[in-house]
User: Which sequence fits this backbone?
DNA sequence: AGAAGCTGTCGAAGCGCTTCGACGCCCTAT
DNA sequence: ATAGGGCGTCGAAGCGCTTCGACAGCTTCT
């Protein structure tokens, strides 16, 4: 293992000079800098992370806490994680992967040990038990998701309320008057993750404003659950012509069942989904959808965090504006005979 | 921040004693141990990770390199990552998340800086450029996947050859004589990730042994690609009654298209998939499938690695035996008129 | 009884880096 | 000519921990 001292000796300078070349915290003459850089390259020197962390009390690591459970769209989680990792690297940070499993203890452990300089939390619940810990420490953190009380916290999330409103507006513009919302699995609502409720709130509010009828049904993914749900929906609201789906594992079953029932999309029934782009474009009918901006969320989270670590940056709630892309699954409401 | 020294003072012992209580590397009297543990608890002490790493040259961190691209089995990747993280924690290790993006440089950086004690690499290509680096360092590593040359390496993977054989056998047992394989996207084969080729090899070899006809068609996911592929397949091999699918984004399109063409599953056509359990059970027809044991792979990888870090453990290729679960998508071949 | 061996504890020496103050040098302003 | 001020470099003091050797007080063997 090559050390700073060896590099210094090889370059004929003192260790501190090498350190300053590396950090750029003091000015170094061009000749010296070049000589040092040459030695670094030649010897294949890599600063020791532990020593660096000890001396500077900065680990250059950001902890990312991902949910353990897999009942919700996993690829989105993955995409966020990858976006976080790549963005972090561009700022010189590495990512420490924590699973939700450990809960608040993980927060304590990481904060206490100086393992990471900052944290990003995903899958935040409305009244998350990790929040008091975050408020009680001076370690910067960013949440992906929105808890009930955001005072003293920095959050990044899609504006789900606006998303709901947007979906309703789109269907209303097309003349639909009876709209059914196929929501997430009941477990998601019970867990109070917030985003499902916020979407629903946006849907309901805008529907009321526009004078539409709205029916909401949570739904597990899969064909059987969807079939059962759909039967009850048409039973209860036979005039339903518009669907908003916020459960990607219900999307394909819904389309298949509608087809099976002889209801054409979009001629008889329009479907708008809140889902990742990939799901929308790979479905059997290309879906009009509001995308989940996973990459953007990950990137923004890291950038908020880096700003905090650099001293600027403040507690702020960043709500990304939803964008609705019209594809083949939505069209004018059928003319009522 | 609480330090070892403060704990020592609080407990009335020397710093080294506290350290030995923590590590258990020397025997400590019960009374002293208890007193120290009490102080640790009371002061809320957490050992500083950097200092520890510096002094012991052990970071207790395992680097996990995940692929950046998202054209394959993302949920499987995620499940592996989560399994790695949770298993690692039970052994006292944390996970550093690296994306494939940085490539060999990341390996150099992590090895050189002592950031991690060991590495797990996912998405290994047959002739991966990271392999020489791994062989050239004394840092333990485990690959998830199988390169062409495994000398000096430890690998964990599903036995894809046996998987292919198993699928063919199942269909042969049911009397199918004409089998078509819907493979991964062409890009996957071009990238030489190995698993697709190995599956195909297993399929072909066993088919030959059993005297079956086998047609292989790579296929992008999605409906359009699948429709085109399927048309050509029935054109070329109208007697096809068995399908093996190794591309989870082709599964649902295939089922829908068969239905549309009036071919009943499993009465007219049997389908066997190589895919995650979730896909198999949530499809419109519950699929007979060989599962991708993501969790098991992650777990085994960590355990191999920990064994190496502890001194026992050796270079070894662990191939997990495939298991075929019969569900509703496969049945006896239709009787030829 | 004395040697030999345990057990439990301590002190001190680093691990490789950052950072602070000091200092020599040269340039500029008086 | 001389004081003042940058600039570029160095030496040394830690950061908080692990670990090695030392050693005091016992027990056990011959």
Assistant:
């Amino acid at each position: 293992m090559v050390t700073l001292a060896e590099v210094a000796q090889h370059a004929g300078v003192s260790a501190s000079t090498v350190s300053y070349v590396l950090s750029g915290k003091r000015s170094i003459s061009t000749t010296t800098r070049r000589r040092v850089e040459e030695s670094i390259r030649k010897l294949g020197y890599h600063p020791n992370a532990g020593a660096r962390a000890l001396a500077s009390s900065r680990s250059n690591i950001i902890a990312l806490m991902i949910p353990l459970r897999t009942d919700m769209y996993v690829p989105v989680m993955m995409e966020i994680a990858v976006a976080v990792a790549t963005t972090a690297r561009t700022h010189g940070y590495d990512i420490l992967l924590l699973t939700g499993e450990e809960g608040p203890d993980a927060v304590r452990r990481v904060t206490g040990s100086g393992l990471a300089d900052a944290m990003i939390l995903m899958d935040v619940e409305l009244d998350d038990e990790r929040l008091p810990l975050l408020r009680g420490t001076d370690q910067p953190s960013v949440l992906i998701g929105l808890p009930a009380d955001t005072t003293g916290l920095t959050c990044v999330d899609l504006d789900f309320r606006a998303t709901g409103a947007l979906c309703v507006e789109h269907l209303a513009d097309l003349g639909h008057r009876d709209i059914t919302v196929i929501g997430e699995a009941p477990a998601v609502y019970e867990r109070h993750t917030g985003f499902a409720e916020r979407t629903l709130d946006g849907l309901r509010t805008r529907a009321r404003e526009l004078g539409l009828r709205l029916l909401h049904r949570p739904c597990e993914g899969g064909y059987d659950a969807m079939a059962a749900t759909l039967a009850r929906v048409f039973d209860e609201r036979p005039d339903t012509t518009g669907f908003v789906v916020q459960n990607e594992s219900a999307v394909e079953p819904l389309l298949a069942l509608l087809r099976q029932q002889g209801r054409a999309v979009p001629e008889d029934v329009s479907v708008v989904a809140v889902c990742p782009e990939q799901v929308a474009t790979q479905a059997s009918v290309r879906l009009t959808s509001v995308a989940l901006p996973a990459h953007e969320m990950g990137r923004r989270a890291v950038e908020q965090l880096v700003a905090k670590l650099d001293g600027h940056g403040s507690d702020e709630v960043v709500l990304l504006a939803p964008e609705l892309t019209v594809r083949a699954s939505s069209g004018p409401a059928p003319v009522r005979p």
Notes: The mean pLDDT of chain A is 94. The domain at 61-158+294-320 of chain A is CATH 3.40.50.2300 (Rossmann fold). Chain A has three domains: 4-47, 61-158+294-320, 160-291. Residues 15 and 161 of chain A are 56 Å apart (CA to CA).
